[in-house]
Amino acid sequence: MDSSSRFPLKSGGLGPHYNNQMSRLPFSALIGAALACGAHAQPKPPADKAPAAQESRPATPGASQSVDNALAMCVGCHGIRGYKTAFPSVYHVPRIAGQSPTYIVNALKAYQSGERSHPSMRGIAGGLSEETMKELAEYYGGPAK
Predict the structure, then answer these.
(1) Do 133 and 75 sit in the same domain of this protein?
(2) Which domain holds residue 118?
(3) Considering the domain boundaries, does residue 110 fall inside one?
């Protein structure tokens, strides 16, 4: 018996295994998608080891950032003339150079405590020590830079 009698062509000459491979395609795609989604799924930690919800708590000062690092973060947005951000909404980012040092420290503390609510600024201020805030205010306060 030759191979043509065992595997008759039903698909117009595209090969003896064409129909078999095409019927496996949706199944393979489904398995691939399930594996891809499963790779991103993370098991839920036990209740006693689950992290506490942070959305409702104000940011707390963590390990203090170096002043150079903090300056780089500030200038990334506040040092660009006419810069507008798109998160959480589109608005003009204010220049902080020339602001009162007291105003800068008070604003950073308000972001840190949650009194001011911009997500990016809360994240940045949350990692600043009071000393770093004062150093930033001294740098940016006074004549515009």
Answers:
(1) yes
(2) 67-140
(3) yes
| Residue 94 within a domain | yes
30 and 85 housed in the same domain: no
- Per residue in 56-107, pLDDT tens? 444 444 444 688 888 988 988 898 888 888 887 888 898 899 999 999 999 9
Q: Say whether pTM exceeds 0.70.
A: no
**What integer pLDDT is reported at residue 133 of this predicted model?**
95
Q: What is the CATH number of the domain that holds 134?
A: 1.10.760.10
What pLDDT shows up at residue 81? 87
Q: What does the DSSP assignment read for the chain? A: --HHHHS---SSSS-TTHHHHHHHHHHHHHHHHHHHHHHH--PPPPGGGPPPP-TTSPP---SPPPHHHHHHHHHHHHTSTT-EE-SSS-EEPPP-TTS-HHHHHHHHHHHHHTSS--HHHHHHHHT--HHHHHHHHHHHSSS--
